[in-house]
Amino acid sequence: MNQRLVMREVKEGSDPVLASVERTYTAAFPVKERRDFALVRELLACETRFRLCGLFHERQYIGFISFWQFEGFTYIEHFAIDESRRNEGWGGAALRAFTAQVHPVVLEAEPPGDEWSRRRIRFYERLGFVVYPHPYLQPPYRTGDPWIPLCLMKYGKPHPELLFGQVKQTIYRYVYQVIPETTLSPELPHRDVERGD
């Protein structure tokens, strides 16, 4: 793609681009796969590991990427291109630009159970991501919602000592605020991100 993509970090919850990000976020992800957007704003204000970048072409907003920077890897929590700019190659361009600056990178993806999920896995694989060969459950964002079977995918080589279990535990603890001891069984109670208890 010859078009130039610009990634601009959102530093605070009052940044006007967040209105566009919220629109894309809400449209792209079902309720069970996202937190309330007020909590995204809180994370920007209070959580130094959490970051969010707006994606732009010629000053026009085209999407966003939110991620967590941990010791040894970066976890992409949400990534979406605005509906008005899909199928123009921006998704691949954005991930190539991101992984050129930051690696190793880990993200969640739906297991390849239907044509849509298989296409998404192939999209990530074409960009250099590989599926961790271990089962993974995404903890719920809200109390009462089910744990979701997903795949973890990685780009680049994590440090040798950074094993799948450590990556999973780090994501559970900081992104979903699940107490590590409870992650062995999805039926056990865990901290609720929305209530903050």
Verbal overview:
By secondary structure, this protein is α+β, with helices and mostly antiparallel strands. The chain is built from five helices and eight strands; from the N terminus they run βααβββαβαβββα. Strands 1, 2, 3, 4, 5, 6, 7 and 8 form an eight-stranded mixed beta sheet that branches. A hairpin with a 2-residue loop joins strand 3 (60-70) and strand 4. The radius of gyration is 16 Å and the shape is globular. The termini are far apart. 26% of the residues are buried. Mean pLDDT is 86; it is low at 182-197.
Number of β-strand runs: 8
Tell me the Rg in angstroms. 16 Å
**What can be said about the biggest beta sheet?**
8 strands, mixed
- In terms of quaternary structure, what is this? single chain
Q: Count the helices. How many?
A: 5
Spans with pLDDT under 50 lasting ≥5 residues? 182-197
- Which class of secondary structure composition applies to the elements? alpha+beta
Can you tell me the overall shape?
globular
Average pLDDT figure: 86
Helicity level, as a percent range? 25-40%
Alpha carbon gap, first and last residue: 46 Å
Q: Give helix and strand order, one letter per element, not per position.
A: EHHEEEHEHEEEH
Strand fraction equals 25-35%
Give a short overview:
The chain is α+β, with helices and mostly antiparallel strands and 197 residues long.
List the helices and strands and how they pair.
Elements: E1 6-9, H1 17-28, H2 37-46, E2 50-57, E3 60-70, E4 73-81, H3 90-101, E5 105-109, H4 115-126, E6 130-131, E7 136-138, E8 148-155, H5 164-174
Parallel strand pairs: 4-5
Antiparallel strand pairs: 1-2, 2-3, 3-4, 5-8, 6-8, 7-8
